[in-house]
Structure formats: C-alpha cells, structure tokens
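Structure tokens please, single chain.
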Amino acid sequence: MTQPLKVAFFGSPAFALPVLEAILAHFEVILVVAQPDKPAGRGNKLTSPAVVTYAREHGLALAQPEKLRKNLEFAEILRSSGADVAVTCAYGKILPAALLEVPTHGFLNTHTSLLPLYRGAAPIQWALISGETRTGTTIMQTDPGMDTGPIILQESLEILPHWTALELSDALATQAARLIVQALENVETLERTIQDDSKATSAPMLEKEDGLVRWTDSSAVIYNRYRGVFAWPGTYSFLEGRRLKVLRMRPSAGSGHVGKILGLSENGILVGCGSGAIELLEVQPENKGKMSALEWFRGFQVAVGQHFKNQKET
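Here you go.
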C-alpha cells in the first residue's frame, strides 16, 4: 500500500478552511502554516487567523513565521516535516524561491480567477467591480512570480447578478476545495500549461478609497463596485460633509443630476448618477447604527435635491 500523501498547508483566513478540510479528508496534513496573530477590533485584541484556530482545535502541527525570506529556521521546519507537496490558499505572504523547492512536488496554489486574468491579491473583488459574469478557480504550480506559474487545473463559475464578494467567495471556496483534491490525487502525473502573459490582468489589493461611490458612473458600474467592495472597505459617500456608509443598494430606473437625491421610492432613496439611478436601501450615518435609508432620510433632515459629493467637503 502506498503511503498517504503528506501535505503542508499554507493559509490564513476563513476562506481557506473548506480547502484545508477537504485536504484533511483525503490526505495527511503534517503541517499548517498561517500568518501571525494580529491586533483586531476596537480594543486591538490579539486575534488568531481562522486557520490557526482550526489547527489548534484539531491538534495539527502549526507554524506562524513572521517572515519567510531568509528564514532558515522555518525552512528547516518545512524540510523536516517530510511534506511531499505544499498547498497555499489565501496565505497572504509571497513565497521565496528557495522555499518553493523544499517539498518534493513543490507548491500548488488555489487562485480564485481564471488565470492569467486577475493576478494579484483581490481577484474576487476586481472580477465583480469589473462586471464579470463568469470567473473561476485555477490550481497552479507556484513559481517566484505573482500568480504566474503553470496552470494545472481550471474550472469556470457563473457569477449570479445579486452576488457580492461574500457569496462569490463562498462559491469559489467550495470549488477550490474540490479541485485541490483532484490535483493532489494526481500530483505525480499532472500536466502543466504555461500561462499566456499577454492576456494577464491585475487585481491589486483594495484600498479604502475603492469604496467611494463615483456618482458620474452608470448605475450598473456603481452597483458592481458596491458588490466588489462589500466585505471591505465597504461603500460610502459624503452628504453635507458627513460620511454615509451604504450597506445595501441596487440599480433603479430613472435619471437626474449626478449625485442628486431625486426622491423616495417605496423602499429607499433614489439618487441620480451618470446613467440611470441608484436606490439606497440601508445606510449607516457617522457614529450611528445601521438603519433603513428611509429612516435616515426622515430622521436626519435630509431633503430631496441635496447632492452627494465624491469627497468630504472642507
């Protein structure tokens, strides 16, 4: 009987858990590697990544190196683990070339796009912002570049029109979990296809400013951005110098001046944009809890005809 495949798993957030669980169900996970605990929340309490919590609860060998480059101690930990292959899923650190050579079959990465499209840290978010109707998962052989390694497996996925980054992340995590098992089952005979760099697009890490509503855009473009930044940084705009978070919105019929409050609907507030209108449904004013857009309109002296701005007025 052949020995079970020994896998080292590199991942950090909750997104990576379905992939880790799928590997555990079929193979031997001999080491889990995640980012260090970090301060989080208003109290800056030291908080473990979801993968760390899971590894501790299930008694898995765990490492949380502060850095990987020139970290000889960690390289020895990986080498001595006897890993046949390593898998990365939303780990969050770039792997140095020397480390990639440690496992017998190198590193396999689960990337949430149809590479070479959307290389980078935020492929799910930028696919939505760009208005894509399909995306998918790529299992690739990791090389020293940014998502540039050869493709091993690839499968597309339809993006439903109402999905935000949260729903799309869940669907892609499930898809990635299934595909990584398929790849690992055939790790010794996998065919690898070189990416066409001429077709590559970029998906850089989001910035806080990416959540700002661009009212000059069409309603469809504004809505797609809202879907993409839903988990972070969220959607926001400014009215009378005050920031307003937009928790729920949707495109609507109608037209009017860019950023102008056009009137009320049965469920929300209509705002003009470059083409069409946006219906605000749920909002959160500065230093207040979330509320319906109608509650905000009626309780905060908001008036039809006021204009949202693209920046805070000084």
